Amino acid sequence: MAWRDENSxxxxxxxxxxxxxxxxxxxxxxxxxxxxxxxxxQFEKEWVEALLGRVLRDLRHDYxxxxxxxxxxxLHPFLTASxxxxxxxxxxxxxxxxxxxxxxxxxxxxxxxAKRVRQEVAATVDSPAEVDGELAKMIxxxxx
Length: 144
Hints:
Blueprint: H1 2-7, H2 23-65, H3 69-75, H4 88-95, H5 99-122, H6 131-143
Helix pairs in contact: 2-3, 2-5, 4-5
């Protein structure tokens, strides 16, 4: 019986117990957690950029098929954070359109873009009720 008491392992036996409050634990795993978090953020950002890229590619294709590729290229900066935007009056003159026609074209392409983004996002979620939440996450990812 004495041998059994001396050689028994209770509650983990020889296993080392590490407190999650331990500074050493935090120090060892903080770098690892930061890297995993950065990797996840990078994946999310690349996913959002790929989705938006598909939408722009499809929109460009539609304009090309309609014989309006020049108009698409002129309006593209109004869909992105591009600094290549020229004033609408100047754009209208270069395209040979009225200012109101250019304003309407910008409005239409933005509306088409938004609709397609919603459709792409809707295809990735389980329920239509989740689309707005997913769009909000996408915006947050792009703002980081």
